[in-house]
């Protein structure tokens, strides 16, 4: 067997054992007796002819009926075997990530109906496993091993995906790209790593990363990358950005006009294109029209050969417009126009990391009908040759990844029908209530702007909060924090803090009510399904609830401080800590069994850092009035009146801890 077929067989063998309690017997070549035959197709099968197609044919052999799974290529056989597993063994594509093992049976009956695989709507379809810190931190070994990557690639294949960017800027000696190729996937590249080449400044430390000055050094890296991958299924990414995923003119100011920038990008893309074609026959090539490159292309400054797939990107929040860059948000449409000929595709986020309001640990904040509408609109505009989905850490995003897999296979989806189908696969009871919970999740997310995609994910509660604490403690609260203009507009710092506080306070009750509904439902579910609802919905609600509560208390702390009431500000800062800590508790509760340590590398949303920032704040506040003995607030607010004026200091000098003092002061102040 070839490597992709062997991997698929091992999956099916495991599926047989899970469902039937016994492993299958694999017989190579022609067998005396066979139940299922896996083989390459012959003309008499009349299998579909497109790439990666497969068919099921029921064949009579000496009085018995055999199922033949046939295809014209390896990936077709892989998809055929996994469809057999889904359709007849009942193995869910996300069985691993949802802790959803298939049901056990003593017997499986197959209707003897021939079947032809439908042609996928999108030719190249897959995941960019990006910002994958949970996958990186899950196990001790770095870079992640086969143990981590196998379930990722298996789920992608079971979803009908055939393409992957396996991780972000991982060491070249890691197993990720090799294993993806072994399993039959097309491998593609990050737009900041054209052709999958090593970053210039890693290869040539101390050299200037300028193609204008050092073209031969860049081309050496490109040549090496092409040579290493030329015998694999690669969707080659042709691109030219600066080091660290930023515009190249940030490091080379000679390119000071759109014309100069566009000419350089066009020249580099053509050079990379010619280099690939010199080594690979009929290569599949793409150009990521991401960020500034899309704007230059739209303005007519970039020219691209017509047989290269042009990839258009959403803004990170699911809308097919240019992404927000700090406070600049031009929202330039990011779809091919009516006169854009050639092939087109999409890079789409169901999870994102941007240090502002994106969702990283939590579910996509807008309704799934919004995803459906945007992707169907993109397909109608002609962007249907390629769909790459930012999949993040997989586990938190299986609901939206499942919807997108239906869209890339069929070209359309009904979000309500999909919701009911997804919930029915995951739960045997409480389905109506659970579907309502998923709908109401998106209705409760914080709306922070005028656009339909201006909905907050988990990072909204953390990055702005930490920026506010830093600005405050650096003594800059008389000046606005320009990094928050994207949300608040150009207002003074106290108004900025109050804007965030009010947004979070207004949303808090909705999240609390949603959590209470989940808690009422959980006892009615079977034990495995209780845990599934906690992991895949309640966790996400807790992240929003704890974030809203923490930010609200931070805002109240700042208001009390401005009024000169440092003891009350100290109490509110402590309550902010406790609220944010509830998010950490929720993450830890989801680290059961095989998921031990899954969230320990939460370095992007970084709830731990937020808690530490709040702790720094309250320590700083305690310095205002309780220093140097850290006994004065106890004496002022807590000590009995009968003791205040007669106590001996040498018997009353054990200061309360910050937590204990805050709890007792909160009771005293009634907050």
Low-confidence stretches: none
Rg from C-alpha positions?
Answer: 28 Å
Distance separating the two termini: 69 Å
Q: How many DSSP H or I helices?
A: 22
The neighbouring-strand order within the major sheet is 5-6-7-8-9-10-11-12
Percent in strands: 5-15%
Q: Averaged pLDDT, please? A: 95
Number of strands: 12
Give the CA-based shape. Answer: globular
**Sheet with the most strands?**
8 strands, parallel, barrel
Please state the structural category: alpha/beta
Fraction of helical residues: 40-55%
Give an overview in words.
This protein is α/β, with parallel strands linked by helices and 671 residues long. The chain has helices at 3-20, 74-89, 133-138, 146-158, 176-182, 200-203, 215-229, 258-279, 292-298, 368-380, 398-410, 415-426, 431-444, 463-473, 485-488, 493-521, 527-562, 566-589, 607-622, 632-638, 641-644, 658-669, and strands at residues 36-40, 54-61, 64-71, 115-116, 124-128, 163-165, 186-188, 234-238, 284-289, 309-313, 344-349, 386-390. Helix 8 links the parallel strand 8 and strand 9 (284-289). Helix 13 (431-444) runs antiparallel to helix 16 (493-521). The chain is globular, with a radius of gyration of 28 Å. The N and C termini lie far apart (69 Å). The mean pLDDT is 95.
């Amino acid at each position: 067997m070839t490597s992709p077929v062997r991997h698929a067989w091992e999956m099916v063998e495991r599926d047989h054992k899970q469902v039937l309690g016994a492993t299958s017997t694999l017989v190579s070549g022609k067998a005396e007796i066979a139940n299922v035959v896996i083989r390459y197709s012959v003309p008499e099968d009349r299998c579909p002819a497109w790439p990666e197609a497969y068919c099921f044919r029921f064949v009579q052999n000496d009085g018995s009926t055999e199922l033949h799974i046939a295809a014209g290529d390896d990936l077709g056989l892989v998809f055929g075997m996994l469809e057999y597993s889904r359709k007849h063994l009942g193995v869910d594509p996300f069985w691993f990530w949802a802790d959803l093992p298939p049901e056990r049976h003593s017997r499986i009956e197959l209707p003897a109906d021939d079947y032809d695989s439908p042609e996928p709507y999108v030719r190249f379809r897959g995941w960019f496993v990006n910002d994958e810190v949970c996958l990186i931190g899950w196990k001790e070994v770095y870079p992640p091993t086969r143990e981590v990557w196998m379930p990722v690639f298996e789920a992608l294949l079971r979803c009908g995906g055939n393409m992957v960017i396996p991780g972000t800027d991982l060491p070249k000696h890691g197993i990720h790209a090799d294993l993806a190729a072994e399993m039959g996937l097309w491998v593609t590249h990050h737009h900041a790593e054209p052709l999958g080449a090593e970053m210039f400044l890693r290869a040539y430390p101390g050299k200037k990363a300028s193609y204008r000055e050092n073209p031969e050094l860049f081309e050496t890296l490109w040549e090496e990358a092409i040579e290493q991958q030329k015998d694999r299924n690669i969707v080659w990414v042709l691109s030219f950005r600066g080091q660290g995923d930023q515009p190249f003119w940030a490091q080379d100011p000679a390119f000071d006009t759109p014309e100069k920038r566009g000419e350089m990008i066009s020249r580099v893309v053509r050079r990379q294109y010619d280099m690939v074609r010199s080594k690979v026959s009929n290569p599949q090539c793409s150009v990521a029209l991401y960020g500034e490159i899309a704007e230059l292309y739209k303005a007519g400054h970039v020219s691209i050969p017509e047989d290269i797939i042009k990839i258009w990107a959403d803004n990170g929040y699911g809308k097919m417009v240019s992404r927000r860059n700090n406070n600049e948000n031009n929202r330039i449409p990011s779809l091919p126009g009516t006169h854009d000929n050639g092939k087109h595709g999409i890079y789409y986020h169901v999870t994102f990391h941007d240090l502002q309001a994106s969702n990283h640990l939590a579910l996509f904040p807008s309704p799934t009908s919004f995803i459906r509408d945007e992707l169907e609109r993109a397909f109608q505009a002609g962007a249907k040759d390629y769909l790459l989905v930012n999949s993040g850490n997989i586990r938190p995003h299986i609901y939206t990844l499942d919807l997108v897999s239906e869209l890339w296979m069929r070209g359309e989806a009904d979000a309500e029908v999909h919701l009911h189908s997804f919930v029915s696969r995951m739960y045997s009871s409480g389905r109506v209530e659970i579907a309502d919970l998923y709908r109401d999740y998106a209705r409760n997310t914080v709306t922070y702007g005028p656009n339909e995609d201006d909905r907050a994910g988990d990072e909204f509660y953390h990055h702005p909060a930490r920026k506010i604490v830093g600005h405050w403690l650096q003594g800059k609260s008389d000046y606005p924090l320009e990094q928050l203009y994207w949300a608040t507009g150009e207002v003074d710092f106290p108004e900025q803090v109050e804007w965030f506080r009010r947004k979070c306070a207004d949303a808090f009750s909705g999240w609390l009510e949603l959590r209470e509904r989940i808690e009422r439902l959980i006892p009615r579910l079977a034990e495995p399904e209780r845990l599934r609802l906690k992991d895949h919905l309640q966790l996400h609600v807790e992240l929003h609830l704890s974030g809203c509560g923490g930010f609200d208390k931070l805002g109240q702390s700042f208001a009390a401080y401005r009024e000169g009431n440092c003891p009350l500000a100290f109490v509110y800062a402590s309550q902010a800590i406790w609220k944010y800590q509830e998010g950490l508790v929720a993450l830890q509760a989801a680290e059961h069994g095989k998921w031990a340590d899954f969230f320990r590398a939460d370095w992007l949303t970084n709830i731990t850092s937020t808690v530490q920032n709040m702790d720094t704040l309250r320590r700083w506040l305690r310095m205002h009035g309780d220093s140097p003995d850290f006994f004065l607030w106890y004496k002022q607010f807590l000590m009995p009146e009968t003791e205040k004026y007669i106590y001996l200091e040498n018997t009353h000098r054990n200061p309360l801890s910050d937590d204990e003092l805050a709890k007792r002061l909160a009771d005293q102040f009634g907050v």
